[in-house]
Write a structure and sequence with these properties.
The protein has 160 residues and is an alpha+beta fold. 30% of the residues lie in helices and 36% in strands. It is built from three helices and nine strands. Strands 3, 4, 6, 8 and 9 form a five-stranded antiparallel beta sheet that branches. It has a four-stranded mixed beta sheet with strand order 1-5-7-2, sandwiched between helices. Helix 2 packs antiparallel against helix 3 (119-136). The two termini are 32 Å apart.
């Protein structure tokens, strides 16, 4: 079945995790794939995005960042984002892992993984989920600057 005629569904398998501890995104993805897709042979593409904390933002050096959220709101919004992606592309499985709490430079903040029969759906679905997550999911960021100040981040960086 070609990707242009593939059936698009909003019932793909998914896992959404909000975690407070540091995680290894590639190990987490491999473990999830082994557990949830064992024996499956109908996917041909896996795309992922890993977001890592930088040590700078808006021209300032950043020491750490604290991410806050409301669990029920966050879960609802992330599930809606996955539903939207699944209505646009034939996605078979998704994994989203997002950190909350205190995060330091070089630590992973977010993992988005998407499985599909074809690469275009995997790439496009992964980017869509990540961009929607950045602009719609209710996460609030407070940065601790090396200069000693703290500030709430008013706007996420644009996906470029």
């Amino acid at each position: 079945m070609s990707s242009s005629t593939a059936k698009i569904t909003t019932t793909s398998v998914r896992k959404i995790m909000i975690v407070e501890e540091s995680f290894d995104p590639l190990k987490t993805q491999a473990d999830y794939q082994r557990e949830s897709m064992s024996g499956k042979t109908d996917y041909g593409a896996t795309a992922n995005f890993v977001g890592t904390m930088r040590d700078f933002n808006e021209g300032d050096d950043v020491l750490s960042m604290t991410l806050e959220h409301y669990p029920a709101m966050t879960s609802k919004q992330l599930n809606e984002i996955v539903d939207q992606a699944c209505s646009k592309w034939p996605i078979q499985n998704t994994l989203i892992v997002h950190r909350v709490g205190e995060i330091f430079p070089a630590e992973s903040i977010v993992l988005v993984s998407v499985w599909s029969a074809h690469r275009n759906a995997a790439f496009d679905g992964c980017r869509y989920i990540m961009e929607a997550l950045k602009h719609q999911a209710p996460f609030w960021k407070k940065e601790a600057l090396i200069a000693g100040d703290t500030r709430w981040v008013a706007e996420n960086t644009k996906g470029e």
